[in-house]
Design goal:
Layout (H helix, E strand, L loop, with lengths): L1 H18 L14 E6 L5 E13 L2 E13 L7 E10 L2 E10 L4 E22 L6 E6 L1 E2 L3
Antiparallel strand pairs: 1-2, 1-8, 2-3, 3-6, 4-5, 4-6, 6-7
């Protein structure tokens, strides 16, 4: 009877493998939306956005932001602001512009979705429209209230 038990166990494992029942590769549902925000380190720029993600398996995610807002708070200093997204891809680390404003401006981005990414984070920086330089960058954090 021991051989019958072993064959039954092997049969069950085979059925699970054919059915794709590997929980390590299962796709998760979207996380709830969370608001992330930050001021640049000298408080000259302020940005916020809503963010969520879902696992697509193998350590990769589909990430989405919604309603990104950016405000340059120090009009007349020659600097604007920028919200940057930073993320990993199979080809390596990348970054992009979510929102960007000239001196004294406001910007709004209705949202974007990124596929096959991981280690996603956002930052708010002061930005010089003439040179493209950034400084006083601060990582955005989940809003607590």
């Amino acid at each position: 009877m021991r051989i019958g038990h072993i064959l039954t166990s092997i049969g069950a494992v085979g059925v699970m493998a054919l059915a794709g029942a590997n929980p390590a590769q299962a796709t998760a549902d979207w996380t709830d939306w969370a608001t992330f925000e930050a001021y640049s380190s000298n408080n000259a720029s302020y940005g916020y956005l809503d963010y969520r993600y879902e696992s697509t398996g193998g350590g990769w995610y589909k990430a989405e932001f919604y309603l990104a807002n950016l405000d340059d708070l120090k009009y007349g200093d020659g600097w604007g602001g920028v919200i940057r997204i930073n993320y990993g891809t199979p080809a390596g680390a990348k970054w992009g512009i979510v929102a960007q404003v000239d001196d004294g401006g406001l910007d709004f981005n209705p949202g974007e979705t990124y596929y096959n990414v991981k280690d996603v984070w956002f930052e708010v920086c002061n930005w010089n429209p003439s040179s493209g330089a950034t400084y006083s960058c601060m990582r955005m954090h989940k809003k607590t209230s």
